[in-house]
Amino acid sequence: MTNLTLENVWKRFGSFDALKHVNLDLPSGKMITFLGPSGSGKSTLFRLVAGLDSASEGVVRFDDTDVTRMPAHQRNVGMVFQNYALFPHLNVWENISYGLMLQRRPKAERRARAEELLELIKLPHIADRTLNQLSGGQRQRVAIARALAMEPRLFLLDEPLSALDAKLREHMQNELCDLQQTLGITTIVVTHDQREAMTMSDVVVVIDHGEIQQVGTPLEIYRKPSTPFVADFVGTSTLLEGIARQDGTFEFEGRRLNVGCIGEAERDHTPSLLCLRPEQLALRTQSDDPSHAIPVEVRLIRDLGSEIEVTASFGKYEFLVKEPSGHSLGYSEGDRLDLLLPDHAHVMRA
After folding, report:
1. Where are the alpha helices (DSSP H) in 187-253?
2. Residue 240, SS3 per DSSP
3. I want to staple 239 with a disulfide (CB 3.0 to 4.6 A). Which of 126, 153, 273, 287 is the partner?
4. Taking the mean position of all CA atoms in its chain, how far away is CA 2?
5. What string of pLDDT tens digits covers the 350 residues of the chain?
6. Which residues have CB under 8 Å from 156's CB, separation 6+?
7. Using CA atoms, how far apart are residues 173 and 189, in angstroms rounded to an integer?
8. Which of 175, 150, 147, 201 has the alpha carbon at shortest distance from 31?
């Protein structure tokens, strides 16, 4: 198991800063996700960790070893890419053991290691198949086995599930988590898929415009976003602009909302944002407590089968409310209702 540390790392391409003052201290033996939109810098960070690119400034460490200028082949990391990069002229076991062949390991040893890994990825008895005899999911598992054959210090996966259909993606997410827990290897997955990051990760690193926005567990990222970007990118939220008061209320559009503000905003004098998630909200004909509700108009109702999504508006703000399916809502599009607020809501600096 390997601890990964980055100290004030920058990566420049000409005058463009792809990564800016990145400082990370990531635990060993965990499933870690680099999460961000396209162009955020997550793949650049992946390449710096892998040794495929070098940092313009700063230090990269594996445990106590400075690997900043160490080339990829000396870092002992296993990598799986989006296109898997398997060799079409080799069969399954030859693909898995290719790195061992370069080390001139005996053929019997290479074959035994390949079959051991095939058992681990739950694909025994396919060692002699060619790649065109495999499904997409099987090829992905073979690529994983090849990356693990050299017993790497870090296991790195760049958008490994993006080529799979939705159902197979979910299955492979579970398989990857089981594999990581079995091996106890420090694993880093690059993804733009929030659901993938939330369901797979022990630690999520949210990146945007080359800067680390937040590091935390999936629940911390979702329930206590530290920036407006994180609140907007991870899940669905409505951010109300106002002032968080010392008494726990939130001053919004000339009214005091009793929502028990919790968070890091400086209160009583700094513009703040109140983060409201769909599952925290409810719609009623009338609220018993005006300080605990906002008057809204129902704009759109969508029955998704498993749940009903209701969009309601107040001025420039839109709120998403999720209702259970299978029953009558008791209201329709165009109705004016009260939006009930949670007892406690997260607040951040604007």
Report:
1. 194-200, 218-223, 228-233
2. strand
3. 273
4. 21
5. 689 999 999 999 999 999 999 999 999 999 999 999 999 999 999 999 999 999 999 999 999 999 999 999 899 999 888 777 888 899 999 999 998 888 899 999 999 999 998 988 888 889 999 999 988 888 888 988 998 988 899 999 988 777 677 777 787 788 888 888 888 999 999 999 898 899 999 999 999 999 999 999 999 999 999 999 999 999 999 999 999 888 888 999 988 998 887 776 556 667 899 999 999 999 998 888 888 899 999 999 999 988 999 999 999 999 999 988 877 888 999 999 999 999 889 998 88
6. 46, 49, 50, 77, 78, 79, 80, 147, 187, 188, 190
7. 11
8. 201
Terminal CA-CA length for the chain: 39
Residue 347 tokens, joined: 């607040």
Q: Strand 282-284 relative to strand 16-26: parallel, antiparallel, unpaired?
A: unpaired
User: Cα-Cα-Cα-Cα dihedral of 203, 207, 212, 217, to 10°?
Assistant: -20
Tokens 């991870």 belong to which residue? 234
Q: 103 Cβ partners below 8 Å, 6+ apart?
A: none
Amino acid at residue number 40: S
Provide the β-strand partners of residue 345: 261
